[in-house]
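User: Quick sanity check before I run a bigger batch. Here is a single chain. Can you write out its predicted 3D structure?
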Amino acid sequence: MLEQKSDHISLTLPVPVGSSSQEVPKNLQQRKSLRRTWNQLPRCQRNLIILSISAFCTFVVLFLPGDQIVSQTTAKDALSADSAGESIGLNAAVGIGHINVAPFKDHKVHPKDHHHSEMAADTSKRKPDLPETPENANLLIAPVKSLDNDPDPPNVVDEPGVGLMQNDAKVAAESGIDDFINHLEETTDLTPSDFKGPSNSRQKAIVDAFKHSWKGYKEYAWGHDNLKPVSMSSHDWFGLGLTIVDSLDTMYIMDLQEEFEEARNWVDQFLNFDINRDVNLFEVTIRVLGGLLTSYHLSGDKMFLKKSVELGNRLLPCFLSPSGIPYSDVNLASMSAHSPKWSPDSSTSEVTTLQLEFRDLSRSTGNKIYEEAVHRVNEKIHSLEKNNGLVPIFINANTGTFRNFATISLGARGDSYYEYLLKQWIQTGRKADDFLIEDYKTAIDGVINHLVRKTPKEQHVYIGELINGKDFKAKMDHLTCYLPGTLLLGHKFGMPESHLTLARDLLETCYQTYMKQPTGLAPEITYFSTVEDDEPEIQVRSNDAHNLLRPEFIESLYYFYAITGNRTYQDMGWNIFQSFEKYTKVANGYSSIGNVKSVFNPRLRDLMESFWLGETLKYFYLLFSDDRKEIDLDKFIFNTEAHPLPIRNN
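Assistant: Done. Predicted structure follows.
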């Protein structure tokens, strides 16, 4: 007879003589009972329980938000260690001198938003999120100095990775970014325009287009980067709510108070930069940092400046390269920067299109570190050898040199380098001895001498490219159509007549790239004939026939109208807007299209980029304004994403 086997052992403990079972302490009985129950469980169940507990502990350690485990004590310790020469965190900047502007008029109070004064009191209760730099970011401490009142430009630090931070940053670290922002001393250097909403039928049509786009975005992509209006879904690039942040100032300028408030509340409550994702320094700077800074200047809401400081701190590690030329990408959570994954080189336009935004952040906070970082880039680029002022479209962040035999273009990867040379000069008071404006004038001379051509019959003036830095190619990106407006803006501030002539000729060619297509919309890239028997003179290849709802030509039309007052430019813009309405409008927004050559099958691409609301519709709205100074070009300079920033005296 087989013995019956048991997979557990039952053990009976003896009770001391003279005692009953009732006299055994209850906690001892409970411990014995729990141990007995555990031992009686099958082995598989015990393993599952152990795995569950381990998984929970791992989740708590790895995924607990950083702002819940970094205390103010950490910030204080880091700052006290600084006096001994140790590395410190990039905490909130301290200083004075931001613009005093009127708050958004007639605010509608929402249940979630107890007005801005109460918002400040509420945020002060939360622990500040004070990002830290990588260990190799050894920052020096310098006294606080108001940049707007500083007669001398800040000295450039030659050693890569070294910047300046104020001694009073200790106050900011101890009290938090919220308290620092709330106690900034206000000045009255600039009074913004009083935006009253649309004044005519064309402006109202643009506002309707914006509302239609916004409605689709809210319903199907709220909080995501971009709307996919055809599939009624969303698309994320960086996970920063690009459409919301990019559109803030558009809504403010259009006097869309309710939409502005709901976007503002999302930024305040849900825009989080502590995300474990690589982002592009250039795109995040022009869209997010630029959008936040402009919203701060227009509304006076310090919450936007607080967010700007948080983001600016997380982007600074990009400048810790061996050459001072910034890396193109950074992980916002780890604050580790690197070159693009597809190449060791960065795009020249990207590393040179950060200066307006970082300088404005310094001027708004009184902290020089942001401006110092980008000005070193200016000086490095200025020192490099160029072809009559023209630059290759790739540069290496490690060596600080241009790629040999790289293309020279005023289109993709090169365009905004030239734009920011002029705009930085305007932003800082148009100093006569500024090397930025000298580089700009030399570069435009190089454009005229090496890149400008005319078609043989119709005499369309266009700007081509130099392949390998020397071989001319009759190809022009739609991106290049920003140049007529930039040239005219330069002429307004004293640039030569040759710039005005090129601006007029190029504007007409850009307009024809729209009008020559059956849809009335321009392709992404246009080719031009170079011999008389080559027809048509304006050519579009199938792979380049898409339209992404880009703003560059509308931007130039706006400058021409705002500076000259000629309403012909409004009519040109209205023709293009009607084409957008006819071929890109869908039930839930507007979609980029794949073929501008076909009115029967334009091929919806199912993507509405943030710049449609942040740039294109904004420039349309300003173009159709009865007031040419709705944004005063003597007081504001637009960044390359159409976010107006204040012009300073120095």
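The chain has 20 helices and 22 strands.

User: Great, the batch can go ahead then.
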